Queue: 2 jobs
Job 1
Amino acid sequence: MAVSKPNLNLTPLSAWLPSPRPIVIAGPCSAETEEQVMATAHGIAQQGVASVYRAGVWKPRTRPNAFEGVGSPALPWLRRVKAETGLLTTVEVANAQHAYEALKHGVDILWIGARTTVNPFSVQEIADALKGVDVPVLVKNPVNPELQLWLGALERLNQAGISKLAAVHRGFHSFQKTNYRNAPKWELAIELKTLLPELPIFCDPSHICGRTSTIPAVAQKALDLDLQGLMIETHVNPTEAWSDAAQQLTPDQLGELIRSLVVRSADATPAAHARIDQLRTLIDELDDELVTLLTRRMGVVGQIGETKRAHNVTILQVARWEEIVQKALTQAQAGGLSADFMRGVLDLIHGEAIRIQTSVMNRPHTHAEVSAQA
Ligand code: PEP
Ligand code: MN
């Protein structure tokens, strides 16, 4: 279903979070103790790579009786973080009470978690609570891959007057087993960016990956897609963390990661522009040829269908198709295309060919055909 472009009235990111790309939000999954919060904050500040300190104070846990966050008593610790390190602070809010508490304690930025974005009632409650407050809000994607819900949450906040908005891409729950804790489904972030180019998007590689080893690749990919920043869980002692222990980096690892990222620019030099334009022209020509070739191929498929119909031959001829696939795979691999990709393309072409031939076969017989067969 096509998604209609929402009309958001946004304050540019540079007006509320001025910082060179990537803008880094780092800090522990959960605020645990004052010592842990302060040691992590000083470690992060020392690296000089982050501008915002995150910490979960109210933790949405899947099952009860797990650590559910320290709650409001952790908020003064964040005030101390800001005073001692200069980092801005952000916490997750899931209801109006959280929002009041966070604002009362001077938290700079609020974020809405994935489990809250799925619920329009909760989002509306938070939006209503924030009416008349000019606080920035980050909106994580909903747990399920539904762009409309993500947009809906942004719209609800915007309609309540929140203009300092950003999205956070943290991956999506998937029933299929993947390498990720939450499948990135980059296409949703890309679609959001295409619909709302002026909306800043952060990526949260920690919750996408669920472990530390794959964070660098996901963080780099986010930058290559021109996302504005990263939210990365960082803990002074990850193995001892009270939540999400497997995915948190130490402050040193965070520094190393951010310094290793290659920041490419969307604004190319004139020479690079000219080259990209040439290559795009080439791509346009090739796409043109592809469509022409596919049209011709399906035309021939139709003719084969007619011939099979006239001679009562079955549509599906497995041996013939296997032969086509093998030949194409060999040729594709020689040219450096992946077998998976080629097989996907061939499956689509085959599906369409069967559809065309089936409709030829099922066409009602004309008088001429009936008398010819009699
Ligand atoms: C978090 O950032 O700690 C968190 C709970 O994230 P999410 O809402 O993305 O699961
Ligand atoms: Mn977490």
Job 2
Amino acid sequence: MTRSILFVCLGNICRSPTAEAVFRVQSKGRGLEIDSAGTSGWHDGKPSDPRASAEAARRDIDMSYIRSRKVVASDFSRFDLIVGMDAQNMRDLKAMQPAGSPARLVKLLDYAPGLGLSDVPDPYFEDNFPEVLDMIETACAGLLDSL
Ligand code: 4NP
């Protein structure tokens, strides 16, 4: 049974906080614990990228409460499911996971096979926030269906 989900990307200011906010709306009333974090810690304590939060706000999704934080070892026992955005996130998460910890590591776009993509592209550099939000909404809906 999945009760807690952590979304993870590199900076925790674009993709994973977007997934956190989208999934919180989609799963409302299910009693799930939802959070996000980054593998890098480069933006610790900072709000999400304003380009991400503006695109989310256009769709009535609030990201203003989210502050960036780094993945910590206790996340691997606190969360049942840890959802990475790309292959590099998955490699970094596997390297950080304490031996024998119970969290299951999965990649977000595995829940949206129709998109024909394996990784959520990084909008921080590509500046394609609407397209990335579309992908995240589709894949989060698939993830929710799978629970
Ligand atoms: P995110 O995007 O991993 O989706 O939050 C990035 C944000 C910041 C940087 C890279 C990716 N950065 O290099 O600072």
